[in-house]
Fold Putative transcription factor MYB-HB-like family.
Amino acid sequence: MVRTPCCDERGMKKGTWTPEEDRKLIAYVTRYGCWNWRQLPKFAGLSRCGKSCRLRWLNYLRPNIKRGNYTSEEEEIIIRLHEKLGNKWSAIAAQLQGRTDNEVKNHWHTNLKKRLMMNKHKASSVSITHDDHHEEVVPKSSDLPKTTAPADFANAETTVDQIPQIDYLDYPELWSPQPSSSEVSSMTSDTAVAITAADGLVVEDNATSAAMGTIYGDFGDNFWTEPFLADNSYNTSGFYTPLMEPEFLYPPFDGDFLYGAT
DNA sequence: AAGCGTCCCAACCGCTGTGTT
DNA sequence: TAACACAGCGGTTGGGACGCT
């Protein structure tokens, strides 16, 4: 979706990722890890910049990504942490199992912010007192979230102050063990990663499942149930370049593996 | 059914932080 | 210590999806 596919001045592809690109990226990262995002696309056969690859992997392709509706518990955590931390989306996302900073940020801007502002507006309409001269933009009712909002939040007259005052920062034991995106990145680059479906890959619906199946089909039905290994038997010395690996010299997927062939 | 407006979210951009030389 | 390279983060964009008229 989103941006029209195009190329930058160096011929790097931009815009929506294709299933084929996803397969190449998954295949490479699962086998070799993220030893260098800048160099990775060259070896993985992708005409993408490293940044784009990193973003795609962290926000969409890596295991344990949780997609779909947010639970009220997750939203409470986001709201509370945002009150405490501000727009530290990566820090907030680190406390939510399977959620990415980008996703949390999007959810905040599209749902939670409006909801909080509306609740604030309701509260202030009882006694309208502004303690400063800042213009507060109150969303029109048509701008408010529609039926996608979880029922408990949509129906409840909940305000920020009514949310249970649990300070998650003060209770690390309440935090989920899910590593942050940066932690995952370093994991995949530095250590052997063994991730199984039992670790919490969540596919929320059939459509998502089908899409994942399209992407991962080439890896066999047991891709997510077999141990997920970033084979680092080559990089125990701390650095490994896959230049000499036959499957990355010869296309494992199709004839245009080498992006020069496009 | 068609046109229009709004929403959602994947992806890009630019800046900052960190590590290395 | 400066310069450079790379990773990570947060703000923003833009186009498909969806709802309304």
